[in-house]
Amino acid sequence: MDRSPPAPPAPEAQLTDTRYESWVALEAGADPVERTGELRRAHEAFTSAGRVVRPVRPLVAASWRRSARARVNPDGTAGVELGEDELAGYREGHPLARAMPVIRELMDSYAKDGEHLVAVCDAQGRLLWVEGHPATRRKAGAMNFVPGARWAESAVGTNAPGTALAEDRPVQVFSAEHFRRPVHPWTCAAAPLHDPRTGRLLGAVDITGGDGLAHPHSLAFVQAVARAAESELALLAPPPTGDTIELSALGRDEALLVAAGRKVRLSRRHSELLVLLARHPEGLTGDQVLVDLYEDESVTPVTVRAELSRLRRLLGPDLLSSRPYRLALPVDTDFDMVARRLGSGAVAAAMGAYAGPLLPTSQAPAIVRIRARLAAQLRAALIERGDPGLLADWARSPWGEEDVSVWRALVAALPECRRGAALARLRELDGELGAGFAGST
């Protein structure tokens, strides 16, 4: 029987007791056995009636609500999305492969001595490496905590690597804080991993085991490992040559610029200007910038010149030229990378590089057009490819959770035995749109 919870109501009350505001699962002196019992009862209250009761921490309550909205079945098991052959190639080319020697060096003996597991996942929550104590690996295999399985929060509910990705910060999850009941015997701590140059989320590193991990030391340890891994990636990255500019603008309102060894977080208006200039290496006149950037027809060319002058002071005269306005060096952007990969047919690689819509809250006319065109091209490629893992990545993202066409394609791509949650979400969306669902089975 499907025991998926109903979409929960608005929170009845905020859990303000500071004892439950920590990112650590158990405060000093807490009895793990007693807390487990309390959490199991709280978990039952939530999955049966949508009520959050003590001693659920705010972090976990928020994650449970997201899990319920994603229609995660509390009794389900993680799906394996990457087979051995596909996993090997994907893993070899993933940026985190270069950090694995450091992660292993720091965590190997800790994991084996404590009968724990070390796992590293990508930004979509797919486990790429799961290593550690052999007996613990066999036990974890029963719940598909294995390489190639998807442990994103939107797929399996609250868990340390998935929730660390969702929150973009280190987290610890203890016992029945996990959303799925088969994971209740486990405790895990995870920290996100970022590209040290662009800040892009690459994945997470996790340590998983028994109640012994419900200690502040395990969370601090996995944080330290994440920092060491990011430092290793920074050391291994090719040094900046000074003859290119890197611009990251997907999934963020304030773009990140890397130029001449400097990393600069741009204002929203300067982010829009840099995207426009990157798209037009031949340069733009002031009038062109005015039309592309401003909806308000009352804005004057003087305003545009003032914004560009401020941008030149920020970047330096060697980077921003005028008459026409143009960047003096080639620009490598994350949105062009996605477009290039789509153009070559590398749909999975394009989806891996797509961190979200381009400057998502910008209303500048040209940005709106570029953003919509790139998103439309990517989603069309995903639908045509029909890969359930890639479709799930889009459908369960913040920008794709109401995309009826992708949810319909996902239902069609999934085996009938795994369609339940996706079909329920599709019917819900069709009901909201008043369209009805004619293609159910």
TrEMBL record:
The keyword Plastid does not apply. It comes from the Bacteria. InterPro entries: GAF, GAF-like_dom_sf, OmpR/PhoB-type_DNA-bd, Sig_transdc_resp-reg_C-effctor, WH-like_DNA-bd_sf. Residues 261-327 form the OmpR/PhoB-type domain. It holds the Pfam family GAF. SUPFAM superfamilies: C-terminal effector domain of the bipartite response regulators. Keywords: DNA-binding, Transcription, Transcription regulation. This is GAF domain-containing protein. It comes from Streptomyces noboritoensis.
